[in-house]
Amino acid sequence: SQPGISQHLRKLKNAGLVRERREGQWRYYAIHPSGPEYALVCSILKQIDEKDEVLQTLRQKEVTVTCR
What we know:
alpha+beta, 2 domains, two-stranded antiparallel sheet, 3 helices, 2 strands
């Protein structure tokens, strides 16, 4: 649920794992680029098979799935 996700994001932000950017009423979250967690997540994302059904669904919805 949305309230549950908000609580999880708040905890991740407080732990320094994600950063938040606000634009009006919208909030955008991203993995904090400093620290070992970023490298770990990038490594995991690189393991995903390009033909993975979930990844293909995200791409069809035009959701960005990248690791810079």
